[in-house]
């Protein structure tokens, strides 16, 4: 129940590829970049409700900065700020393995900025298609330990709270339905804290909206099953989800194709066809820069066909 959509999400989702470089430029100052999409619409007992969780700011340093990480001897000599900038650059270029190799050198650091980035890199590495099941599980739990330490070192770090929520949902996949349901409360708490610390992070707001949508659409019979396990299972409404999606759009208009889609789907669930058409049309017209954008576009097109 508690979430198997965990993904490549990043806080400003319009991506522009710079000419002549591998750099990804982003509009604004708080971009997030979705990493991998695991979708499911299975029953409650195998994980029905879903959580999408966001990632932190990126910077684009250019090819020269990228070249610096090719030698570990050079990396070790770099200043903290340079390493963090290079980590963000590698992340923006989706160089998952190189990013992990860079950051794992700092696994014993007490710096939250290194630790939450390492958690993110470990998790992203676990989602690569060539990773075996045993290694995937190991990386998943390592990611959670890194981000847990990051929070211990800096409880005021918005990104650490966001990634704690992501990684907690991930480890829940290995710990059974009861644990996942219990974790869903904690996940929401950390998302809310992330937003409190960084209220301009449209992605965290979107993720919380998705959390609400997932539980709002849970069928009554699955709620009954959840109630057997927990006397008060997580619940929400489409109205609550809508408020978060609209707020995300207010904070950063057109920042992410999935937010436009979810606005359309929420209005559909609320039987407001006119507004659903408006937002689904905006989704269809959104420039498809990533694989996820293309998937979102196709879903919007299918929904528009059904609406006639």
TrEMBL record:
InterPro entries in alphabetical order: RMD1-3_a_helical_rpt (IPR049039), TPR-like_helical_dom_sf (IPR011990)
Main location as per UniProt: cytoplasm
Any one cellular-component term (Gene Ontology): mitotic spindle pole
Localization per Swiss-Prot or TrEMBL: Cytoplasm, Cytoskeleton
The entry's keywords: Cytoplasm, Cytoskeleton, Repeat, TPR repeat
Molecular function as annotated in GO: microtubule binding
Quaternary context: Interacts with microtubules.
Family: Belongs to the RMDN family.
Protein name as it appears in the record: Regulator of microtubule dynamics protein 1
Taxonomic lineage from the root: Eukaryota, Metazoa, Chordata, Craniata, Vertebrata
């Amino acid at each position: 129940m508690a979430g198997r959509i965990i993904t490549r999400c990043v806080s400003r989702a319009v991506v522009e590829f710079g000419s002549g470089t591998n750099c990804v430029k982003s509009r604004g100052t708080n971009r997030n970049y979705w990493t991998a999409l695991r979708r499911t619409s299975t029953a409650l007992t195998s994980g029905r409700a879903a959580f999408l969780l966001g990632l932190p700011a990126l910077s684009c340093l250019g090819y020269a900065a990228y070249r610096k990480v090719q030698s570990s001897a050079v990396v070790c000599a770099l200043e903290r700020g340079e390493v963090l900038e290079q980590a963000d650059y590698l992340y923006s270029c989706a160089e998952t393995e190189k990013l992990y190799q860079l950051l794992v050198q700092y696994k014993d650091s007490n710096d939250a900025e290194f630790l939450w980035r390492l958690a993110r890199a470990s998790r992203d590495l676990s989602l690569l298609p060539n990773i075996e099941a045993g290694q995937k599980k190991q990386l998943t739990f390592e990611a959670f330990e890194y981000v847990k330490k990051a929070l211990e070192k800096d409880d005021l770090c918005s990104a650490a709270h966001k990634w704690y929520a992501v990684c907690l949902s991930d480890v829940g996949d290995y710990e059974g339905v009861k644990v996942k349901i219990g974790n869903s409360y904690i996940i929401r708490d950390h998302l809310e804290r992330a937003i409190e610390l960084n209220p301009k992070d449209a992605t965290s707001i979107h993720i919380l909206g998705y959390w609400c949508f997932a539980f709002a659409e849970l069928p009554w019979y699955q709620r009954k099953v959840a109630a057997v396990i927990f006397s008060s299972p997580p619940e929400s409404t489409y109205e609550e989800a809508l408020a978060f999606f609209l707020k995300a759009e207010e904070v950063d208009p057109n920042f992410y194709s999935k937010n436009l889609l979810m606005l359309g789907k929420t209005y559909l669930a609320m039987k407001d066809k006119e507004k659903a058409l408006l937002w689904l049309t905006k989704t269809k017209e959104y420039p498809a820069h990533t694989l996820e954008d293309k998937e979102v576009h196709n879903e919007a097109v299918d929904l528009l066909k059904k609406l006639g």
